[in-house]
Amino acid sequence: MNKVLLMSLALMLVLSVSIVGCDGTPLPIVVVGMSRSLSGSCARLGQPFETIYPIYIDRLNAIDGIIIDGQPCKVELEVLNDGSDKDSLIENTDALIQDIADGGVHFLWGCTPCAEFIETQAI
Length: 123
Hints:
The chain is of the alpha/beta class and 123 residues long. The chain has a single domain, classed as Rossmann fold. The protein has 3 helices and 4 strands, in the order H-E-H-E-E-H-E. It has helices at 2-16, 43-62, 86-102; strands at residues 29-36, 66-68, 71-81, 107-108. A 4-stranded mixed sheet has the order 2-3-1-4. A hairpin with a 2-residue loop joins strand 2 (66-68) and strand 3. The protein is flat. The two termini are 28 Å apart. Mean pLDDT is 78; it is low at 9-22.
């Protein structure tokens, strides 16, 4: 859990390096989509996405978000609950990929599967 949290926070720190000041004009929104276990046996891994990230995103957006190609952009998260079920994870990811194709999501954050998702194979 701590390793996942630290890696996630490090990514958000990298994204926040390009923060700009507020000039009062409406900014485009960059939607980051992800499937997370917000319930079920792996809910402990999804907890930061329900508690920490919304606070961080609000603070980031309060100072005009991130810069992409020289343009300041607000950040919005689209977090889908897979319920700690690998089939739901696949369905959610497929839906997010379709949202990318439709222009509703701009970036897909990879999944964070727990041990229940990983199938062992004989070597």
